[in-house]
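Researcher: Sequence of ABC transporter ATP-binding protein follows. Predict its structure.
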Amino acid sequence: PVGQQAVLSCAGIERSFGGLKALKGVGLHVEEGEIFGLVGPNGSGKTTMVNVMTGFYPPNAGTVTLFGRDVTGMAPHRIASLGVSRTFQNLALFKGMSVLDNILLGRHTHMRPGALASLFYWVWAQREELANRRVVEEIIEFMQLEDIRDEPVEVIPIGLQKRVELARALAAEPRFLILDEPMAGMNQEEKEYIARFILDARDERDVSILIIEHHMDVVTAICDRVVVLSYGEIIAEGEPRAAIADPKVVKAYLGE
Ligand code: ADP
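Model: Prediction complete. Tokens:
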């Protein structure tokens, strides 16, 4: 919707790897309360774009503005502490730890190591721990993970592991959530489940969402707007159905 505050604003982003121009001047905006799709064939620059907006790669040119603040070149942990959470294309859960403990780890951006120096650390830590537990319990209920909360993550099916990853990202209580192929390796039923959780997270947890997604049915079902990349450039953008049907997009995917 017009007139809402931009959560993320990228302008003129360029990024090269050696002689390869992975991003050639990409600009995009994510508005508050939006589910925004970043799509495009393999190697089109989607992950590089996310790595630039989360501080993992500094851009060679261009600016990144988050919540109205210029964060270009800022370190990843500082960007995360502004209220940005992300999941990764490949699962990054801690094997040997339970579902509950993996989600609890998502709270680490809320723990301030500097407080260790304080005389009041112990009292503070007790309260912090309680607050963390409360948020995590609430997320476990929201994501319907009660039945497997004490299971080691490696014994549960891949679809549920992806759900745990989403729960961990939500545990940080982000204002902006970036999901890199959250449905990879899922069957139809699991995809529909995750799509529902993503919509509910936006509606009930006040989070704006950027999603990299290959499944076009998912993109048209849940995204408000999309940007389509090909070879580091925007080839279409706007309403998902129209953008995906654009002849340039059809051609880019045929060439894959
Ligand atoms: P996508 O996420 O759309 O599949 P990527 O952003 O991963 O695309 O990659 C875009 C291009 O940049 C590809 O040609 C890829 O090989 C290249 N690339 C990405 N990361 C690196 C890197 N760390 N070093 C060298 N080349 C890279």
